[in-house]
Write a structure and sequence with these properties.
This protein is an alpha+beta fold and about 80 residues long. Helices cover about 30% and strands about 30% of the residues. It has a four-stranded mixed sheet with strand order 1-2-4-3, with helices on one face. Helix 1 (about 15-25) runs parallel beside helix 2 (about 40-50).
Length: about 80
């Protein structure tokens, strides 16, 4: 699993860095993304809908928002 710490970054950087990291993954790989930007709960799931991958959002009070993303086979570029 690859971990991406994007805490402290503001829109659009979390989405751009997540997209770049996804491009380097193979089908079945997982990406764990940590964000503090409140807009990331909208932006990252929208990105994953575009790429065709799978995302699970884990929100925790007083902590970064954690996204678990699974790269799926045949995802759109």
């Amino acid at each position: 699993m690859t971990k991406l710490d994007l805490t402290g970054l503001k829109c659009p950087l979390p989405v751009l860095k997540t997209r770049k990291a996804l491009k380097s993954l193979s089908a079945g790989d997982r990406l764990e993304v940590h964000c503090t930007d409140p807009l990331s709960v909208i932006d990252i799931p929208n990105l994953i809908r575009e790429t065709g991958d799978r995302v699970e959002v884990i929100e925790q009070a007083d902590k970064p928002i954690v996204f678990m993303i699974e790269k799926l086979d045949g995802a759109a570029a």
